[in-house]
């Protein structure tokens, strides 16, 4: 006497949508080919405070916090060319004198 078993797995459609978006982002090689401006390097609390202040001052430039053990970095902007990054760096350095232009590696 053989037994048969049937399992039905239901998956939220939003999961597949999110997975699809993640695949698109990962396949976009331009993301790591862009220049960023680092405005802070240090502790988590200070990084969050710095990013919040930056977003108030420069509303049209996006920013993010990156963790590289044991410190946090605040990166802002996403510039296609070095020249574009340097133009923004001049304005940002008025408020964040230690800011520097970087090109993150993959």
């Amino acid at each position: 006497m053989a037994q048969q078993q049937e399992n039905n797995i239901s998956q939220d459609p939003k999961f597949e949508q999110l997975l699809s978006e993640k695949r698109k982002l990962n396949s976009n090689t331009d993301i790591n080919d862009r220049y960023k401006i680092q405005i802070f390097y240090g502790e988590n609390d200070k990084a969050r405070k710095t990013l919040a202040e930056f977003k108030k001052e420069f509303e049209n430039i996006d920013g993010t916090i990156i963790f590289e053990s044991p410190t946090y970095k605040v990166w802002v902007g996403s510039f296609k060319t070095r020249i574009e990054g340097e133009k923004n760096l001049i304005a940002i350095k008025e408020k964040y004198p230690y800011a520097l232009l970087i090109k993150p590696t993959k």
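Helices lie at 13-27, 44-57, 82-95. The chain has a mean pLDDT of 87.
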